Amino acid sequence: MRQVLETFMQPFAAFAKLSLSAMTGILALTLITACGSEEPKSDPDSTAIYLKTNGAEKFLIEDGWVRPTSGKMSAAYFTLTNLGQDDNALVSLSSDKAKAVEIHMSEMKDGKSTMRQIQQLPVAAGESALLAPGGLHIMLIGLEAPLAEGDAVDFTALFENGETYQFQLPVRAATSP
Ligand SMILES: [Cu+2]
Known about the structure:
The chain is of the alpha+beta class and about 180 residues long. The protein folds into two domains: about 1-40; about 45-170, PCu(A)C copper chaperone (Immunoglobulin-like, Sandwich), CATH 2.60.40. It is built from one helix and eleven strands. Strand 10 (about 150-160) and strand 11 form a beta hairpin. It binds copper (II) ion. Copper (II) ion binds near residues 75, 115, 137 and 139.
């Protein structure tokens, strides 16, 4: 009788073992999911983009955005910080969404807002350049298609030292005019 009972119990013991390991797996999955929700990507306030060379952070782009438009021109704004040890300058930009991308400066002239192209944007080591409405901005000229909120624009930036970086900015309405 004892022999029979042991044989009978064996499958239950195996089942108990299996379900314990399955539960451990479920617990691990839950932890991964919980950690995943803390990634900066899902945080709408986190807009820091690090431009790296061989793993070293060289530039930081913060609060970047592109103005939505149904026309052929738009502007991009961000704060660019030079994290490197050497002075540098943003020399040129390009984007697959626009025929030309220029660095511009807005100015008031005789009571009128005008803008002019500037050849390069210097950023000293440890310093930041602020691009914002009414001042420095990145001009997108000859847009291939309208830019709507929720879209994203890819840029390639060339710096004075010959390094190029790629980054993406979201299209969104201005938070301040
Ligand atoms: Cu402009």
